């Protein structure tokens, strides 16, 4: 039975459980490929836009961070695409010692005035998150301004309250499994309009850059056989490489 095979993989090779789950969903569920590949051709901004459309004043958007990922740029992009000024609409606070008071003040103001609040690195203050959970419940009873949204970011942590996770829409940006899916994700990182406006030679080099980045993302899974030392290749590396490419081509 496919599920029994999945249990064996979970018991003997927990590092391969994600891949085994993908295969299980593809084979067992009707139209399973659609569930596994649902966002493989979308970039982070497109995914965030669809998530924002599904969010409400009582549903935080929770970013589970992977190495090199900074969602602030994507949130600012969504604000601009809606005709909003990110400097006025988005208020960010990096949590740490003594920052809970400032976070509460911003949340109260955002709840009443209807702007966005982003609390970064919430895993650094797990005790505050229980207070945050109660505050959000009070907001839900009172009723927030229609434009109010809460964004949370943290590294993976076992200390995040389950209740907060359950009421949030959770996003992460881990590279997919397999070279083909990595290549799709890398190429979809760039907007279609931006690629079509470039010269043919730049398009060719950009495709080669995406292929190289996909190989690097896949190779890092092999540990010491793939790398002499651990280095987490991320979409930030691809973004910066494309900027270097464009600058080089413009100057030559």
Furnish the topology, listing elements before pairings.
Layout: H1 2-12, H2 17-28, H3 32-36, H4 44-54, E1 61-64, H5 72-81, H6 86-89, E2 90-94, H7 100-113, E3 116-120, H8 126-142, E4 149-154, H9 162-167, E5 169-172, H10 179-188, H11 192-196, H12 200-219, H13 235-251
Parallel strand pairs: 1-4, 1-5, 2-3, 3-4
Report the β-strand fraction as a percent range: 5-15%
Give the averaged pLDDT, no decimals: 83
The N- to C-terminal Cα distance equals 60 Å
| Number of H- or I-type helical stretches | 13
CATH class of the largest domain: Alpha Beta
Low-confidence runs: none
- Largest beta-sheet characterization: 5 strands, parallel
What would CATH call the homologous superfamily of the largest domain?
Answer: P-loop containing nucleotide triphosphate hydrolases
**CATH T-level topology of the largest domain:** Rossmann fold
Q: What's the SSE pattern?
A: HHHHEHHEHEHEHEHHHH
Q: How many structural domains in the coordinates? A: 3
Can you tell me the overall shape? globular
Strand order of the largest sheet: 2-3-4-1-5
Question: What is the architecture of the largest domain at the second tier of CATH?
Answer: 3-Layer(aba) Sandwich
Q: How many strands?
A: 5
Computed CA radius of gyration, to the nearest angstrom: 21 Å
């Amino acid at each position: 039975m496919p599920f029994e095979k999945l249990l064996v993989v979970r018991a003997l090779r927990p590092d391969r459980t994600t891949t085994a789950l993908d295969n299980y969903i593809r084979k067992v569920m009707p139209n399973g490929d659609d569930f596994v590949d649902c966002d493989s051709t979308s970039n982070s901004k497109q995914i965030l836009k669809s998530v924002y459309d599904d969010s409400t004043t009582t549903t935080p958007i929770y970013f589970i961070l992977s190495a090199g990922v900074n969602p602030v740029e994507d949130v600012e992009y969504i604000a601009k695409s809606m005709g909003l000024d990110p400097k006025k609409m988005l208020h960010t606070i990096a949590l740490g010692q003594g920052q809970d008071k400032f976070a509460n003040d911003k949340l109260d103001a955002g709840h009443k005035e209807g702007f966005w609040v982003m609390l970064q690195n919430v895993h650094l203050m797990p005790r505050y998150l229980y207070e945050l959970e109660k505050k959000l419940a009070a907001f839900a009873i009172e009723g927030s301004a229609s434009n109010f949204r809460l964004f949370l970011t943290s590294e993976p942590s076992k200390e995040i309250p389950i209740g907060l996770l359950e009421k949030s829409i959770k996003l992460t940006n881990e590279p997919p499994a397999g070279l083909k899916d990595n290549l799709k994700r890398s190429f979809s990182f760039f907007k279609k309009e931006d690629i079509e406006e470039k010269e043919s030679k730049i398009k060719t080099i950009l495709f080669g850059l995406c292929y190289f980045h996909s190989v690097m993302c896949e190779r890092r899974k092999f540990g010491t056989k793939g790398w002499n030392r651990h280095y987490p290749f991320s979409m930030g590396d691809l973004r910066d490489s494309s900027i270097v490419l464009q600058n080089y081509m413009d100057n030559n």
